[in-house]
Amino acid sequence: MTATRVLVLNSGSSSVKYQLLDMRDSSRLAVGLVERIGEETSRLKHTPLASGGGAREWTGPIADHDAALKAVSAELAKDGLGIDSPELAAIGHRVVHGGKRFTEPTVIDDAVLAEIERLIPVAPLHNPANLIGIRTAMGLRPDLPQVAVFDTAFHTTMPESAARYAIDVETADRHRIRRYGFHGTSHAYVSRATAKLLGKAPEDVNVIVLHLGNGASASAVRGGECVDTSMGLTPLEGLVMGTRSGDTDPAVIFHLARVGEMSIAEIDTLLNKKSGLIGLCGDNDMREIRRRIDEGDERAQLAFDIYIHRLKKYIGAYYAVLGRVDAIAFTAGVGENAAPVREAAVAGLEQLGLAVDAGLNAVRGDEPRLISPPGARVAVAVVPTDEELEIATQTYALVGENTVEATAE
Predict the structure, then answer these.
(1) What span, in angstroms and rounded, lies between the C-alpha atoms of 37 and 61?
(2) What is the dihedral of CA 162, 166, 167, 171, to 10 degrees?
(3) Which is nearest to 152 in space by CA: 185, 111, 130?
(4) DSSP letter string, 347-362
(5) DSSP 8-state assignment for residue 53
(6) Active-site residue numbers?
(7) Is the N end or the C end of the chain the one with fewer CB atoms within 10 Å?
(8) Alpha carbon 280 to chain centroid distance?
């Protein structure tokens, strides 16, 4: 039997998102989520797509990630899709931070685990949870290839002129301070999907990708390779986000410490969790902000204007970096669903060849689509991201051929 299935795991500190895909046609066999791990009210929601059955959901105590994955395996087994299935070729793991070393998907061994752990200081919220998921999965299927797909990997092609901060080189190198970028799996998928939408090869297309969700980032992609991105050492830099400030004068931190007598922990919380849209107007849901704007709410309008101003600055900056832009692609929750954001982001940029067609922009859909007027010099597209499919594709490309050969022997 040929193993063609890949289980994708995205392990958070108290949650596990998962999808099981068949790589023969990239179809989803099952999707699910375990949340509130470690609590009495843990919740598991499982949807078996292969059988066409409805979602199954239950609530109860799930002590840890080991128990969570065993519960996931039990749900998959009910549909004949268990983790112990010989049809499972590999498990692909989302890992947020791979530093400079990991530039592509990597089969996990002890050395890889050690390096992911060494990177915890630059990803304290994410890498520890990713490691827990990996080690738990390895315990359940020690015979199976486990592959790490890194959020930072796509951005490792940035030149040093874009990746380095203008601080003392020795200090930066000693503490691994540089711009790593994040959302790389999404940027990789969307840039390739945009080229396909244009009927071109990725190496022939320059794309500005705008991943706009609660976290938001932009990237400049030249010929399939990232040459700049808005997030930096951490996901705090760059665009205005749901709860993160994005670009801020570093001296704000010193000022808050001296004049505001705030601790480092308090400033960290302020900039990461109490800033961005929620800090500006009390809401981080773009739908609610737009509703308030329609009712004449001035704080909501100002928050929206600041959000768009920053977005437009990055579009202009990356246009300059690339020199030639073939397309701008909007993706993620806000990018895919908020037509007013897309319209406002390119308004006034007609001299750069950018415009949206109001009718096309208003259309909702799950497929990649152009929203620029016919014949526009620069295509403006909406391209739904699919990070799980990208992780599965990269995982199977790495281990699938070897798995098939081994199974056939």
Answers:
(1) 8
(2) 30
(3) 185
(4) TT-GGGT----HHHHH
(5) P
(6) 151
(7) C
(8) 24
Distance between CA atoms of residues 106 and 395, nearest Å: 8
Query: What digits encode the pLDDT tens for the residues 149-201?
Result: 999 999 999 999 999 999 999 999 999 999 999 999 999 999 999 999 999 99
Handedness of CA 176, 132, 388, 146 (dihedral sign): positive
Using CA atoms, how far residue 107 sits from 111, 138, 172, 250, in Å, is: 10, 12, 29, 38
3-state secondary structure of 10: strand
For residue 294, with 0-12 CB atoms within 10 Å meaning exposed, 13-18 middle and 19 or more buried, which class applies?
Answer: exposed
**With left for phi above 0 and alpha for psi between -120 and 50, is residue 364 left, alpha or beta?**
beta
Q: What is the DSSP letter of 379?
A: E
Picking from 398, 393, 328, 370, the residue whose alpha carbon sits closest to that of residue 146 is: 398
Residues 6+ apart with CB under 8 A from 144: 88, 89, 90, 91
Give SS3 for 329: strand
- Compute the distance between CA of residue 265 and CA of residue 256 in angstroms, rounded to an integer: 12
DSSP secondary structure of 62-123: --SHHHHHHHHHHHHHHTT--TT-TTEEEEEEEES--TTT--S-EE--HHHHHHHHHTGGGS
219 SS3 class:
strand
Q: What is the b/e burial string over 342-367, where b = at least 16 CB atoms within 10 angstroms of the residue's CB?
A: bbbbbeebeeebbbbbeebbeeeeee
How many Cβ atoms from other residues are within 10 Å of residue 217's Cβ?
A: 28
Amino acid at 327: A
User: CA angle, 396 as apex, 391 and 401 as ends, to 5°?
Assistant: 165
Closest CA to 135 of 71, 66, 34, 82: 66
Give the 3-state secondary structure of residue 12.
coil
Helix (H) or strand (E) holding 210: strand 206-212
pLDDT tens column, 36-90: 888 889 999 999 987 777 889 989 999 888 888 889 988 998 888 888 888 999 9
